[in-house]
Automatic annotation (TrEMBL):
It comes from the Bacteria. PANTHER family: NAD(P)-LINKED OXIDOREDUCTASE SUPERFAMILY PROTEIN (PTHR43364:SF4), NADH-SPECIFIC METHYLGLYOXAL REDUCTASE-RELATED (PTHR43364). InterPro entries: AKR, AKR_Detox_Biosynth, Aldo/ket_reductase_CS, NAD(P)_OxRdtase_dom_sf, NADP_OxRdtase_dom. One of its GO terms (molecular function) is oxidoreductase activity. Gene3D superfamilies: NADP-dependent oxidoreductase domain (3.20.20.100). Keywords: Oxidoreductase. The keyword Oxidoreductase applies. GO terms for cellular component: cytosol. Residues 16-308 form the NADP-dependent oxidoreductase domain. It comes from Syntrophorhabdus aromaticivorans. This is Aldo/keto reductase.
């Protein structure tokens, strides 16, 4: 089913669902087949998703290279977002938002993506060693040069977000948000709403948890992102996580759909959420993610999910 929910804005249209490419990089998520990853991008673009989110750190540039290959001949139809500021060249992955590093990072991203401009260029993580005004001044210069069109930030807390806003017009904030991670509701989402900053969620399906794919608490290798990036895989949280997934499955059965569809529909309904980033590394995953989204959830169903989710968050 084609995802028709689109947002109109002066920069064009951005689909309510954005294709995430971290898993396509080939690190932190186990093996990803490049041919299937390219098919996944094509499938997304053919079925109403017109926005792709990537980053140099995803496979040390490999995800960007795949995206660049996939969008050849389609560039003008794609809202392309990538990031800067994690040093992949030293392999230390330190945060670096200095103007000189961003200039290098941007130049390499443009080459890998086979394009001469980025629609949305985002600071991947805040860099406490570089004054934010220096970072934003560099991004404004790159915008004036036509290398980037919009400026965004990712993983910035409230104070960091406000400071960046004072230095440059921000298009967006990308942050972790799902039924399993709701801290942005307290103040971050209100700041975005009040200042017309678009909010993009990542981790929208909780690394697959909210699809119902894990019946038992899974175990992952040390280098797998699910072993260190997502807290809800830990034994402390798992019993209540399973109760939430049971609630998603029950709601999905009543709607004739899948648990992940319910989780994404809940997220899209949250005030201030512009689009949800959903990762995939196969055509099948893309089609599963976009089918039926969003479905209508009534007040009772929303309250049930809020209750089950809140129990996890209070752990």
């Amino acid at each position: 089913m084609r995802n028709e929910a689109m947002h109109e804005k002066s920069d064009g249209t951005i689909s309510r669902m954005i294709l995430g490419t971290w898993a396509m990089g080939g690190n932190h998520w186990g093996f990803c087949d490049d041919v299937e990853a390219l098919r996944a991008i094509d499938t997304a673009l053919d079925n109403g998703i017109n926005a792709i989110d990537t980053a140099p750190v995803y496979g040390d540039g490999h995800a960007e290279e795949l995206v660049g290959k996939a969008i050849q001949g389609k560039r003008d139809k794609v809202f392309l977002a990538t990031k800067c500021g994690l040093d992949i060249y030293s392999r230390k992955y330190e945060r670096n938002l200095s103007p000189s590093y961003i200039e290098r990072d941007l130049s390499q991203s443009l080459k890998r993506l086979k394009t001469d401009y980025i629609d949305l260029y985002q600071c991947h993580w805040p860099d406490p060693q570089t004054p934010v005004e220096e970072t934003m001044a560099a991004l404004l210069r790159f915008r004036e040069e036509g290398k980037i069109r919009l400026i965004g930030v990712s993983n910035f807390n409230d104070d960091e977000l406000r400071e960046a806003m004072r230095c440059a017009p921000l298009f967006s904030l990308q942050s972790h948000y799902s039924l399993l991670e709701r801290s942005v509701e307290q103040s971050t989402l209100p700041i975005c709403r009040e200042n017309d900053i678009n909010f993009f969620s990542y981790g929208s399906l909780g690394a697959g948890v909210l699809t119902g794919k894990y019946r038992e608490q899974p175990r992952f290798s040390r280098g797998d992102a699910r072993s260190f990036f997502y807290r809800f895989f830990k034994p402390r949280y798992w019993p209540k996580v399973r109760l939430l997934v049971d609630g998603l499955e029950e709601t999905a059965r009543s709607k004739g759909t899948r648990p992940g569809v319910i989780a994404l529909s809940w997220l899209i309904k949250q005030p201030g959420v512009r689009s949800v980033i959903v990762g995939a590394r196969s055509s099948e995953q893309v089609l599963d993610n976009i089918a039926d989204v969003p479905v209508e959830l009534n007040a009772r169903e929303m309250e049930l999910l809020d209750h089950l989710s809140g129990a996890i968050y209070s752990c």
